Amino acid sequence: MFGQSKGQGVPVTSNAALENSQNESAADSLDFTLLVPILKVMEPDDPCANVVTLARDDFPIARPFAADLIIMYAIDLPTHFRFVNHRDLRRSAISEEELHALALRNLPARLPEIELHGSPPRYMVTAGGNFEATLLLLESLWDQLEEQMPGDILAVVPARDLLFVSASGWDGAVTFLNEMVSRDLPEKRYALSTCVFARRDGRWVPHSLAA
Known about the structure:
The protein is an alpha+beta fold. It folds into 2 domains: 30-109, no CATH class; 115-206, no CATH class. Helix content is 25%, strand content 30%. It has helices spanning 15-27, 86-92, 96-110, 139-146, 173-182; strands at residues 3-5, 35-41, 62-66, 69-76, 80-83, 115-119, 122-126, 153-159, 162-167, 195-200, 203-209. The chain has a 6-stranded antiparallel beta sheet, with helices on both faces. Strands 1, 2, 3, 4 and 5 form a 5-stranded antiparallel beta sheet that branches. The termini are far apart.
């Protein structure tokens, strides 16, 4: 099991943290009413990195989202996210599809207030600092915004806490999004993707990579 603290720049993935988290998961049942989806980046293999070998049961559940992003699942605890692994799934006797559906159902109730900042063609969306990127999974938000924006909605999530939005029908949309991806913003934590995503037919697909 992996944990990731809230509001800090270092994921909790050390050997000690892994051991502590595994002990917690063995002792306590998970409260799936707190289950949420979390967007993460698919990390490339680094031959120089120190690798911790885990059994399959200890790997977090993940599924592809779009481009280099994946969806993982976590229990939203007060101080950190406790990621769900294959052992948890087996003990809970639910499938990965059921886990995914439950996380999406829970998401609206777990979110802080969502705010839209800016004006066409430049918007920033905020949601408390932990869920901005994960807002890409909130269908109701995009269904509402689609009615107000010309063309396809475009979005970038350069970090977990950053979400910038524009639309293909606005001049300068892609330029703005590329700038937001390439800037070293001071509030940037947990870097994610440099891809510009487009929402088409109810799904997010890669539009382009930041120049």
